[in-house]
Amino acid sequence: MSSKIKVSLFNHLIDAERQLLDPEIRQSERALDALLDDEFIEIAANGTTFNKYQVLTRLPTEVVPQFYNQHFKGRMLSDDVVQLSYQAAYRRSARSEFNYSLRMSLWRQTNEQWKMVFHQGTPCAPFSISMDDD
Fold first, then answer.
1. What is this structure's pTM?
2. How many CB atoms lie within 10 A of CB 124?
3. Would you say 104 and 117 are in contact if contact means Cβ atoms under 8 Å apart?
4. Phi, psi at residue 57, to the nearest 5°?
5. How far apart are CA 86 and CA 38, in angstroms?
6. In the β-sheet with 113-123, what is the strand arrangement from edge to edge?
7. Which positions fall inside the DUF4440 domain (predicted)?
8. Quick one: pLDDT at residue 134?
């Protein structure tokens, strides 16, 4: 089953995805825990894999990069799993170069709450960054 996602759910998950990029959220183990599924796995752009525990201990200590994300797409993979994909660009400081990637996340609904269960970033060629929300 792969079907069209409802606009309200799509917007909710984009908001949740962006919360994970918010400096305040990234520095709060409790806030991260509320957004990440217990079975969460991340494959970073450099090929390193992380589980939920590693993310909860790593992110609060990192310097928060400047993120841009755009061109979100979403689809229902099942009644309780949604795939989001989008372009992302980030840099560690205003003077550093941007890193570009294609991102994909899987969100799973459990007990009426959507949590990210998988995330992957794959390096890609540079693209124009849009300052519009979409």
1. 0.92
2. 15
3. no
4. -90, -25
5. 23
6. 49-51, 36-43, 113-123, 99-110, 81-91, 66-78
7. 14-116
8. 54
